């Protein structure tokens, strides 16, 4: 007796994702990209922006005072998926970041005019 194949589950995520629209900054290897977190789950997120580093790159995602380490696991046109280094509670993230307006503090720009070569690690 032959068994019918099980239906293909295209969404194999273990944890549910929450839609958000949170501006962030992505940092890697001395570069950065302004982006938006489109959705987030316990261990992953989808980012939207203009240019992201290649798959496998370690990055840091900053939202206000929160910084999360992650790795790029896929890239598409103006989007990428990341695997977060540590679990993040999506509900708490939304409550703390998703609904309040973004406020920018105006500060005078800093211009570096001199660097002491042997003074830094």
Task: Give the SSE layout.
Layout: E1 18-28, E2 31-40, E3 44-48, E4 58-63, E5 66-76, E6 79-84, H1 90-98
Antiparallel strand pairs: 1-2, 1-4, 2-3, 3-6, 4-5, 5-6
Question: Can you tell me about this structure?
Answer:
By secondary structure, this protein is mainly β. It is built from one helix and six strands; from the N terminus they run ββββββα. The protein has one helix at 90-98, and strands spanning 18-28, 31-40, 44-48, 58-63, 66-76, 79-84. The protein starts with 17 loop residues before the first strand and ends in a 23-residue tail after the last helix. Residues 6-10 and 99-104 have low confidence and may be disordered.
List keywords for this structure.
single chain; 121 residues; mainly beta; Thrombin, subunit H; 6-stranded antiparallel β-barrel; globular
Low-pLDDT runs: 6-10, 99-104
Helix content: under 10%
Largest sheet: 6 strands, antiparallel, barrel
- Share of residues in strands: 35-45%
- Rounded to the nearest angstrom, the radius of gyration is 19 Å
Physical arrangement of strands within the biggest beta sheet: 1-2-3-6-5-4
Number of helices, counting only DSSP H or I runs of 4 residues or more: 1
Write the element-wise H/E pattern from the N-terminal end onward: EEEEEEH
- Name the average pLDDT: 76
Rounded to the nearest angstrom, the distance between the terminal CA atoms is: 69 Å
């Amino acid at each position: 007796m032959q068994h019918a194949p099980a239906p293909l589950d295209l969404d194999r995520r273990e944890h549910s994702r929450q839609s958000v629209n949170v501006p962030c900054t992505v940092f890697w290897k001395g570069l950065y990209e302004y982006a938006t977190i489109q959705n987030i789950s316990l261990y992953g997120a989808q980012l939207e922006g203009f240019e992201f580093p290649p798959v496998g790159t370690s990055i840091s995602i900053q939202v206000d005072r929160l910084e999360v380490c992650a790795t790029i696991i896929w890239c598409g046109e103006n989007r990428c998926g990341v695997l977060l280094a540590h679990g993040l509670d999506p509900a708490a993230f939304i409550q703390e970041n998703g609904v309040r307006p973004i406020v920018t503090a105006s500060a005078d720009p800093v211009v570096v005019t001199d660097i002491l070569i042997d003074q830094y690690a």
